[in-house]
Amino acid sequence: MKISTALFLLLGAQLLVMAGRVGVAYDEPPYVAAGYLYWTQGLGFIIREHPPLGDYLRGLAVLAAGPELPRAPGRENLSVGPFEFGQHFLFRNRVPPKTILWAARLASVLMGLATALILWLWLGALAGETAAAAGLAFLAFEPNLLAHGSLATNDITVTLFMTLAAAAWSMYLARGGKRWPVLAGAATGAALASKATGLGLLPLLVLPSLVPGWRTPQERREDLNAVAVALAWAAGVILLVYGPTGLHFFRETMAYRFGLQTATAATYFFGTAYPEGHPLYFPGALLAKTTAPLLALALWGLFDPRARKTAPWAWRGAACALLLLLGASLASLRQLGIRNILPAYPLLCALAALGWAAIKTRRPAFHWALPALLLWHAGSSLANFPHHLAYFSELVAGPSRGRRILGDSNLDWGQALPELREFVRKNPGGVILSYFGMDCPPSYGLDLQEAFSTPQACTGSRRALPVELGAEWLAVGATKWQGFYEKGVPAFSWLHSRAPRAVLGNSLLVYDVSRDPDAHLELASMYERAGLPELAVREKARARWISSR
């Protein structure tokens, strides 16, 4: 019990520190604003990207911070899109953006801790104390759960409720009773009301009953009643979240998400941009973003017959939920990051714990390897603290190779501006910034010239830096460096052969262009193609000035 308490404290401490230090991630502003709006104005401004339960939960914390709607022209009637409105809500509020964001992230921290508690209780009930402690230890240092458990997004919300649903349903299958179908159904409804990923739970309610040898005929008949109870509770939770008059929003959101998942979108996969995605994206992302020890022990737990026999229903619940989630991911053409299958990580930790318990019980010769694997897992995670969003495992040569492996929320979600501010504080000079994110660079006091940032609502004016500067830095986000969202040849492909002076947060590349006329001529050409002649003139003048010295 003392070990488990220490692990919970370590997990909470990591999440809290990251919530305070990591810069604003791309998806955070609209969902932070949405939670406030849902509580104050109802669902009229609902974001079709996701159902609203996670935003409601974060909104309670945001309300406590005391913000108000921003007083910018055209914003009072919410006539703009959710992402632009989210930026204005966060950065043009009477309450400092850091305060609002901290409140919203605190709700996610609590959800991350709740996910760990559920995993611990689930494994303790069905697999014993050893497995429970091992599963908690792996989850406490799992980089992806740490990354998204400290951000104000819906990924940790659906992870919490999907873990609860899988645990409750396997408890019912193992022990029977009336309360477990109720809890599983309520958690399923909460997952569906948090993110469309929750749809993967519906097959889980029937799959174990269909596998030959897992259930007797009498148990299958009882399972039908339990499934009906679970579905009724799931429907009740959805009705509670949306209200009788808002159910059409649920239908529209699910239809919208289904359309997105079946529509092709560009992705970056192991060094290549694929305009229509890649069929092995999510298995590859799991390989790249999961620590080698966790992956190895989870596979051991999945395939070792002893793990299945020692805790059959814990194994069956975790294995079925994981395989259904991964199977559904293979059909998705919208491949924006490992966060879309974040619920896989508590399940991987459960299987790793079962593998740990099986080895400890039946293979004494390998006892020495178990602490070593856990230390490797924790060390790999802590070595990247607090930059877990850009974590990559040793299997793909670590975070230094991340920008050549995956993109978007796997690597660069615009979260590294605090590191850029610190870099410029220690290395004064002008900054040319090409940024992919929703943070506001001017709020960091950076003397910058904008260069094709996406989006541009908060990147400041298009003013040019002075020509006669001492030090000058070109800061390019990894997503812009990869260029897979651009049409044609990536705009910054000329940087691929150059070594950056620094890589901030493993996601923002900083180049010294103080004495590099060729770099300024490349920038001038880019500005000309973008129809920005004033900035092109500045870059040509800067190149001439450098060459003349």
Care to describe what's here?
There is one protein chain. The chain has 549 residues and is mainly α. It is 57% helix and 5% strand. The protein has 23 helices and 7 strands. It has helices at residues 2-21, 28-41, 53-65, 82-91, 97-127, 129-140, 143-149, 155-175, 179-192, 201-204, 207-210, 217-242, 247-261, 281-289, 292-303, 305-310, 312-330, 344-362, 369-382, 417-426, 478-482, 517-529, 533-548, and strands at residues 267-269, 272-274, 430-434, 448-450, 472-477, 502-504, 508-512. The strands form 2 sheets. It has a 5-stranded mixed β-sheet. Strands 1-2 form a two-stranded antiparallel ribbon. A hairpin with a 2-residue loop joins strand 1 and strand 2. Helix 5 (97-127) packs antiparallel against helix 6, helix 8 (155-175) crosses helix 17 and helix 17 runs antiparallel to helix 18 (344-362). The longest helix is centred in the first third of the chain and has 31 residues, at 97-127. The chain is globular, with a radius of gyration of 25 Å. It starts with a helix and ends with a helix. Residues 73-77 have low confidence and may be disordered.
Average pLDDT, to the nearest integer? 91
Strand content: 5-15%
- Rg over CA atoms, rounded to whole Å, is 25 Å
Number of strands: 7
Please count the helical segments. 23
Percentage of residues assigned to helices: 55-70%
Largest sheet: 5 strands, mixed
Classify the secondary structure makeup into a structural class. mainly alpha
Low-pLDDT stretches: 73-77
